[in-house]
Amino acid sequence: MGRKTSRRLQELQKKVEERPYGAVEALTLLKETATAKFSESAEAHIRLGIDPKYTDQQLRTTVVLPKGTGQTVRVAVIARGEKVTEASNSGADIVGSEELITEIQGGMMDFDKLIATPDMMPQVAKLGKLLGPRGLMPSPKGGTVTFDLAGAISEFKAGKLEFRADRTGIVHVIFGKASFSAEDLLVNLKALQETIDRNRPSGAKGRYWRTIFISATMGPSIEVDISALRDLKVGDAA
């Protein structure tokens, strides 16, 4: 059964033409169509020419959004010894060792990002079934398995995001709030585009970028002209 489209969304969809928009035009339209009663996020949905079932066609990396995410990120750290103190002093919201692993096993999930030191990973591994499906499992590729706790905590709190292509080769990323200025959203979107290009999997064949659509959380999808976005030079995003 198809979802019923609300009258609000039907009206907004009339504003969006079925064509690729220039990035600034698309972002301005995204802001105009963010009319829900809460603070909506700006979302990007990017279809890439990759088949992630092959290991050389997987994309999993991080991007630092220069203008931040607009969200408060709660960081938990699993470490031991002096690293526990370092994490606390660096602004982690929750810090612990084996006892924190036990708490998480018991269902405590009061965090958005989990960082672990490499020496704790053998114990953290048992949380895989719980954390994996939620995208919270620490990983070296995601920058969440590290001894540099101060650096990792400050980066994730400032706007560093981990993202990956799903099994159909689509990347879904929130790149700010719809309340950001179009200029700030553009700086963040450009940083995302450059990160995806820089991390092109070695096995990606043919055309890498297929389509990119952006939208506010409850707004209609707006197609962005990929070539124009890639050619665009943005002062802060260089």
How much helicity do the residues have?
Answer: 25-40%
Main sheet: strand order: 7-1-8-9
Based on DSSP secondary structure assignment, what is the total number of beta strands?
9
**Which structural category do the helix and sheet elements fall into?**
alpha/beta
Report the total helices: 9
Q: C-alpha Rg, in Å? A: 19 Å
- Fraction of residues in β-strands: 15-25%
Ends apart, CA distance between termini: 45 Å
Sheet having the most strands: 4 strands, antiparallel
- Give, in order, the helices and strands: HHEEEHEHEHHHEEHEEH
Protein name: Large ribosomal subunit protein uL1
Function: Binds directly to 23S rRNA. The L1 stalk is quite mobile in the ribosome, and is involved in E site tRNA release.
GO biological process, one term: regulation of translation
GO molecular function, one term: rRNA binding
Task: Walk me through the structure.
This protein is of the alpha/beta class and 238 residues long. 31% of the residues lie in helices and 20% in strands. The protein contains nine helices and nine strands. It has helices at residues 7-13, 23-32, 82-89, 98-105, 121-124, 128-131, 149-158, 182-198, 226-231, and strands at residues 41-48, 60-64, 75-78, 94-96, 113-116, 160-164, 170-177, 209-216, 222-223. Strands 7-1-8-9 form a four-stranded antiparallel β-sheet, covered by helices on one side. A three-stranded parallel β-sheet has the order 4-3-5, with helices on both faces. α2 (23-32) crosses α8 (182-198). It is globular. The N and C termini lie far apart (45 Å). The mean pLDDT is 92. Part of the 50S ribosomal subunit. One of its GO terms (molecular function) is tRNA binding. Binds directly to 23S rRNA. The L1 stalk is quite mobile in the ribosome, and is involved in E site tRNA release.
